[in-house]
Design a protein that fits this description.
The protein folds into 3 domains: 94 residues, Beta Barrel (OB fold (Dihydrolipoamide Acetyltransferase, E2P)); 57 residues, E3-binding domain (Dihydrolipoamide Transferase); 220 residues, Chloramphenicol acetyltransferase-like domain (Chloramphenicol Acetyltransferase, 2-Layer Sandwich), CATH 3.30.559.10. It is built from 10 helices and 19 strands.
Length: 401
């Protein structure tokens, strides 16, 4: 029984998607609920699963093709039991065309008629010499023939491989930008062009937080089954500061300022496909253990491309941690339409003056980028100082000071 393979049903906010890759190819067996393809949208990667056991018979939409919601992208034959599935696979193998022995012998003969330079390029690029059109004497493949073959293949496969005039090759690969990367690029350029973005900096002494983690970290993990990290403290500090300065939690909508009566905190996560920002909804109602669990859960789902559209929509304020990659200082870019974003950085021991004495402390630079159309420097600086004060005196987090 032939069954259609369809793309997932997209949410209303997603117009279409692109076939990112096929995990199975034509003739491959599939099991029920097995992932067979991935559809990349502007926000997330959606999985296509097999509705039942069967064998892929036809791929209609190849990698890179644009697909709409619930569009047919392939077909497969349903098989009710494993024995029937194995039998079908064996029949397909028997029906598959066998390689022509004469062509193999021709290929070997052709390779022997290649010059040294041509042989080197053929070996480096793993080419089939029988497919290269020879122009030399006695059907000998010249270096120019190999180069012409590479240039022709590159236009068909959307790959550009440039071979230098010397005996060495310098390959290049050109691939289309993913939808997610393209969307990120467009949004960043739009933010730069349409907002009056400015950044203010400060630094925070992380010793109190580190001492708190050292003292209660094991007990916290034993009690809540999760490690006590840094991000949870920053989320709580941001929530408290947003309550004091509601303008930072607002956004611009045309000629209006929209004040949000809730704190939805976005936590930027870097993945192989690009930067994504899952949202911790109603962060002001969550305890520190709940925040840590949410952060860990979203981080794992982001790296496994399991985030849903709903988990990435909204957000009134964003925190980005470049410190995990070793960044000492950077300027975060706004996550529109939000008004501000907080950038965390690496903790580094530095000499600082405290009470007239020079001591070594674990210091972190903080950077807050904000939209100057809505925030003046006074509010932005005071907001960042509020976060600094709470982190340097963790008891303020508990007393809501």
């Amino acid at each position: 029984m032939t069954i259609e393979i369809k793309s997932p049903t997209f949410p209303e906010s997603v117009a279409d998607g692109t076939v990112a890759n096929w995990l199975k190819k034509e003739g491959d067996p599939v099991s029920q609920d097995e992932i067979i393809a991935e559809i990349e949208t502007d926000k997330v990667v959606l999985e296509v699963v097999a509705p039942s056991n069967g064998v892929i018979t036809k791929i209609i939409k190849v990698e890179g093709d644009v697909v709409n919601s619930a569009e047919i992208i392939g077909e497969f034959n349903e098989i009710n039991d494993i024995q029937s599935q194995d039998k079908t696979i064996e029949e397909q193998k028997e029906d598959a065309p066998q390689p022509d022995k004469d062509k193999q012998s021709i290929s070997k003969t052709t390779k022997s008629k290649s010059g040294p330079a041509a042989k080197k390029i053929i070996a480096e690029n793993n080419l089939d010499a029988s497919l290269i059109k020879a122009s030399g004497k006695d059907q000998r493949i010249t270096k120019a023939d190999v180069i012409n073959h590479l240039e022709t293949s590159s236009s068909e496969d959307k790959l550009q491989i440039n071979i230098s005039s010397s005996s060495s090759s310098r390959p290049e690969k050109r691939v289309p930008m993913t939808r997610l990367r393209s969307t990120i690029a467009k949004r960043l350029v739009t933010v730069q062009q349409e907002t009056a973005m400015l950044t203010t900096f400060n630094e925070v002494d992380m010793l109190p937080i580190k001492e708190l983690r050292a003292k209660y970290g094991q007990e916290f993990e034993k009690q809540h089954n999760i490690k006590l990290g840094f991000m949870g403290f920053f989320v709580i500090a941001a929530v408290q500061a947003l309550k004091k300065f509601p303008i930072v939690n607002a956004s611009i909508d045309g000629d209006d300022v929209v004040y949000h009566g809730y704190q939805d905190i976005g936590v930027a996560v870097s993945t192989d496909r690009g930067l994504v920002v899952p949202i911790i909804k109603d962060a002001d109602t969550k305890s520190l253990p709940e925040l840590e669990k949410s952060i860990l859960n979203y981080s794992e789902k982001a790296r496994d491309s399991k985030l849903t559209i709903e988990e990435m929509q909204g957000g009134t304020f964003t925190i980005s941690n470049g410190g995990v990659f070793g960044s000492l200082l950077s300027t975060p870019i706004l996550n529109a339409p939000q008004t501000a974003i907080l950038g965390m950085h690496a903790i580094q021991e530095r000499p600082v003056a405290i009470n007239g004495e020079i001591v070594i402390r674990p210091m972190m630079y903080l950077a807050m980028s904000y939209d100057h159309r809505l925030l003046d420097g006074k509010e932005a600086v005071r907001f960042l100082v509020s976060i600094k004060e709470q982190l340097e005196s963790p008891e303020r987090l508990l007393l809501n000071l």
